[in-house]
Amino acid sequence: MSGGAQTSVSGMRAPGASRRGETRRQERWVGFGWSVHIVILALAVLLWWIARDMVAVSQQLKDAGRVRFELSESLQGEWRIFSQTQLPVTLDVSGPTKEINEFAAELDQNPGRFAYRYEITPADIERLVPDRRQQIQLTADIRSFQATSDAVVPAELTVRPLGGERVFVVTLERFIQRDAHVDLGPGSKGQIQVTLNRRDGRTETRAYAYTAEVNQERAMEVWGPASLVEANTDSNGLARLKVSIDARQVLDNFAKSENLTVEQVLEQGSVLSIVQLLPIDGVEVRDKEQRRPVATVPVKVNYSRLQDYVQVSDDFDVEVVFPNWLAQKSARVENLPTSIPVALKILSSQRPDFTAQNVHVRLDLSSLNNTDLEIQVVEGTNIKRAKVLNWYYSLDINTERLTYEFFNENVTADQYLPIGEITIAWTE
């Protein structure tokens, strides 16, 4: 055999043979391998993300729900819920994370939408003894809550109230009865002024005192929650009912309904009027015998003319009231006195109220029209003048503080004193 001959074995590289082709194949494989790893990693993340939202978990949504307490029909009208009628409830929600998150977001946007109902029945309170305030406290069993939710719960979720977190205590208040009476208060007596028409076309103002009394023949009572009834009970243990008396309105209404003049009604001396009771929120007023609701009571109002008058007089400043077109020109009355005497007859008890605070003297020129005036221009100036004849001072008297009559029956508050002639001046 020749010493220079070489023997090769299949699959083995001959010494000194080239490695270039093998290197290229390995580089291509390495580059492709990294791409596969990235794809596998992305798929793993995607599968984890999907699995995370699909795996059932439990989550607590704090105060996301409400429980509403209601009285059974047999307890209504005998008891009321004194404490809050709704309380927050923590929800225990089981299901896929995605649905839980969406459900929680819906409750965040609509607080109280997911609710339970607890009906209080006679069995809940039969062994409870009311305290001195006629109240009892019961503990609600969370297992008895009934779902009455407006929120749509996905089929994948299980929702229940979280038990053992808190004790639900509800306070109830008993209804009680009290005999009642009508308390007229300050409205039981007072004074009014009546303006009557005279035969000569003028008017006359008279003062009358009035007293009011309830003309109720049947006994009344109140029925309602203890705290509300007690708040309207006096020291004698009687519930106070109130009415609002407007003696002047009673007079006018009766005269209109009977087609009489106010003076004819006053001559009768009294009026029987049906008056509305002022409501007491949450409390029923009823006939004690028939147990029927009562909303009105008959009230008799007696009228008597006042005669205890004294004469008073004083000087009061004069206020001029111009029409707009003169007020804008800063008009003035040139020959007007600064004050005039006012003489009246008032009740002796009101003498201290005869002051400028309750008596105002006015010269009311607000109805003057420039077409009604004979206007003269002062020569060489921009001053204009106009004379006004046969005008009157008027009185504005506070009738809540002063009950008055005039000495002269021909005098009225609108035409108290004639002024004769005045001159109005203004600048154009």
General description of the model:
This protein has 428 residues and is of the alpha+beta class. It has three domains: 54-166, no CATH class; 177-305, no CATH class; 309-427, Beta Complex (RNA Polymerase Alpha Subunit, Chain A, domain 2), CATH 2.170.120. The chain has seven helices and 25 strands. Strands 2, 5, 8, 11, 12 and 14 form a six-stranded mixed sheet that branches. Helix 5 packs across helix 6 (262-268). The chain is elongated. The model is unreliable at 1-14 (pLDDT under 50).
Helicity level: 10-25%
Shape: elongated
Q: Roughly how many Å is the radius of gyration?
A: 47 Å
Largest sheet descriptor: 6 strands, mixed
Tally of strands: 25
Distance between the termini: 151 Å
DSSP strand (E) fraction? 35-45%
Uncertain spans, ≥5 residues at pLDDT below 50? 1-14
Number of helices: 7
Structural class of the secondary structure composition? alpha+beta
Mean pLDDT: 83
Domain count: the total is 3
